[in-house]
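Open question from group meeting: does this chain pack into something compact, or does most of it stay loose? Before anyone orders reagents, we agreed to write out a predicted structure and look at it together. Recording both the input and the output here so the notebook holds the full record.
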Amino acid sequence: MNTPKKLTPGEVDALYVFTRKHFVEYYDLQTELVDHLANGIEEQWQHNQNPDFEDALAAEFKKFGIYGFSDVVAERKRALGKRYTKLLGRYFVEFFTLPKILLTLAMVFGIHLMLLLPTLYIFMFFFISIQGFSLFKFKQRNNFLEKKVKQTGKRWLLEELIYKGATVSTVVIFATQFIQFIDNAHNVYLHWFLSVITVLIILHNYVVLYSIPAKAQEYLKETYPEYEIEKS
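Structure tokens returned:
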């Protein structure tokens, strides 16, 4: 009885190259697809050992349909995006439980007092400074990730969500629009509303830029057992 053919290390490497050529840039997605392709090819060889590697790969890739790997990549992005959103929500909710709720309320009250001052320049300086610092940290973390990718040659999807801050840019865009109508806020209820919104923006940026990245290694190893943080 013939021993079933197995992929060689060189052929496994060729599968990684194949996934990259088909626009799969994240190493975790490449690994999932390589495992799937390898299993499919070796299953073909169990029934017929005549097809060479290239023919077996072409037959396996054909099973993904006309869109190739795009559907698999899109589904994985959605799944990890939901995971990141859950992490974001979990840390965000912590600010509405004791003792952090006291700090949160104090921030709302402090910003409300700023809005009651005769001039809004102090508040506007505070608000712009907070957003400017958030953008600086966002850029800093983005640079850190790009440097790490160059060193390792591997890009992980969840890691990118964590270090690039999945929704910071959206909040910053909203914030620039938000500040345009602050100067017209004279109603006391609107003052309180603006105070709450400002604090929510600050808390969101803090969670995205500090809380989640501080636990990055834990989350990444939990998601990818083979993941190891490379020291830069």
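Observations to bring back to the group:
Residues 86 and 109 are 28 Å apart (CA to CA).
The chain has two domains: 9-68, 74-223.
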